[in-house]
Design a protein that fits this description.
The protein has 425 residues and is of the alpha/beta class. It has one domain: Spore Coat Polysaccharide Biosynthesis Protein SpsA, Chain A. The protein has 14 helices and 16 strands. Strands 1, 2, 3, 4, 5, 6, 7, 8, 9, 10, 11, 14, 15 and 16 form a 14-stranded mixed beta sheet that branches. A two-stranded antiparallel ribbon has the order 12-13. It is globular, with a radius of gyration of 21 Å.
């Protein structure tokens, strides 16, 4: 893949936020062995197909899923590069029709034909709840003793499974994407960005070139989503209040498509529900900007790289309506408003906006979102042992080759032990 060089970046403490990079070429071909793995070359950077393949072997792609159509799920799976581990975390209905079983069979059928491995689990599986309980990570459980409903919670389950599988990186792809080619491009962009990052603590966030909608009988390729515009505006306003200079550097505040090194992800505090993506920026600001005390000396020394990449494929997904947009917008502003790094002027602007939108009344404050501790606190071998003993939906699909060879399961006690080792913590 060949990317435009990010000629602009901004620092916020130890965090480097790089300007938007455009995909110049989807496939930049093989490289000469004398060339570096990821090469900046004037106005562009390129990553070879060999090096993308290598990093994909160390990457898990988590697909959070809730009541999506079988054909759409199958298309998403087909777009994930072959070397990546697929992890599907479902929160779909199980009664009266067991939609999760349909999803599980879809993944199983796909892996059989594609000769791949995968991990499948239901977010509300009592066995997953038991695994969290066994490790003392009980904030994520609801009054019924199960993992709470919400996208953020499902993403945390996926990250935990990726770490148990011994992967170095985790990426997320929403299950409602109608274009397999877009899915493929996202993952290639993840790998390219993670290779180009200067720090082992890095994140890649996707900005769509367009989000098409049918308006007045015409297909219009809109540039920005309705939620993203607001989230980006207020995140940039926060940076401007600290620096004294206006900025528009952040364009991926609500990026559902994103990836990160597990060295970073396991240290991050995640938010519940749809607050999860914008809160990632806020958590990084809280931990590594220098505004608040931080004990993570290794991260502060290496820095955190946030790369933002604009893809070529249009983003087609199901329109979930105005209420969904409003909910996502509110979730984003809630976590920013209540963050200890949010300055009073930004809080006033958020209140004013929400009053104009008739979300809150005069004198009211935005509600708080639930924030979870970092997953690095979890004892991974204990978690896996409890999951294997009590998990009902947890299934590992082993790679079966046409020659009859069946490979080892993606998650093993040895992989969990290795992931929990001090050098990987």
């Amino acid at each position: 893949m060949r990317l435009g060089y990010p000629h602009r970046s901004e620092r916020f403490g130890a965090i480097r936020i790089h300007g938007l990079q455009q995909v110049v070429e989807l496939d930049s071909g093989a490289r000469d062995d004398a060339d570096p793995a990821a090469k900046p070359d004037g106005a562009v950077q390129y990553v070879s197909s060999q090096d993308l393949s290598d990093i994909e072997k160390r990457m898990a792609i988590v697909v959070p899923c809730k009541d999506e159509k079988r054909k759409v799920i199958d298309g998403v799976l087909s777009g994930i590069p072959h070397n990546c581990l697929i992890i599907l975390v479902s929160n779909s209905e199980r009664e009266p029709v067991d939609r999760f079983e349909m999803e599980r069979r879809t993944v199983d059928d796909f892996c059989r034909f594609a000769e791949r491995s995968a991990v499948v689990a239901h977010q509300r599986d009592p066995g997953i709840a038991e695994a969290f309980k066994a490790t003392g990570f009980t904030d994520i459980l609801d009054d019924d003793g199960l993992v709470r409903n919400g996208k953020g919670e499902g993403m945390m389950v996926g990250m935990m499974l990726a770490s148990l599988a011994g992967r170095d990186h985790v990426g997320y792809i929403d299950a409602d994407n109608f274009v397999p080619g877009a899915v493929h491009e996202y993952v290639k962009a993840y790998g390219s960005g993670l290779l180009l990052a200067e720090s082992p603590f890095s994140m890649v966030r996707i900005s769509w070139m367009s989000k098409p909608k049918i308006q007045d009988g015409r297909l219009r390729f809109n540039r920005w989503g309705r939620t993203s515009q607001i989230t980006n505006e207020f995140l940039n306003l926060l940076l401007a209040e600290y620096s004294g200079f206006g900025t528009d550097i952040i364009v991926t505040g609500n990026a559902g498509e994103h990836a990160m090194s597990l060295a970073l992800g396991m240290r991050m505090q995640m938010a519940s529900g749809f607050a999860v993506e914008p809160h990632q920026y806020i958590d990084l600001f809280e931990q590594f900007s220098g505004i608040l005390p931080s004990g993570a000396e290794d991260v502060l020394k290496a820095g955190v790289d946030i790369l933002q990449i604009e893809t070529r494929n249009p983003h087609f997904h199901e329109d979930k309506g105005a209420d969904h947009v409003q909910e996502m917008r509110l979730n984003a502003l809630n976590v920013l408003f209540h963050s200890p790094v949010c300055l009073k002027q930004v809080q006033k602007d958020i209140k004013r906006f929400l009053r104009e939108q008739k979300v809150i009344g005069k004198g009211e404050a935005p509600p708080r979102e639930r924030i979870y501790p970092a997953l690095e606190t979890i004892d991974q071998p204990v978690f896996l042992s409890a999951l294997e003993e009590h998990g009902r939906s947890f299934q590992q699909i082993r790679r079966r080759r046409l020659a009859g060879i069946v490979e080892e399961a993606p998650i093993t006690p040895e992989a969990a032990e290795a992931a929990a080792a001090p050098e990987n913590a």
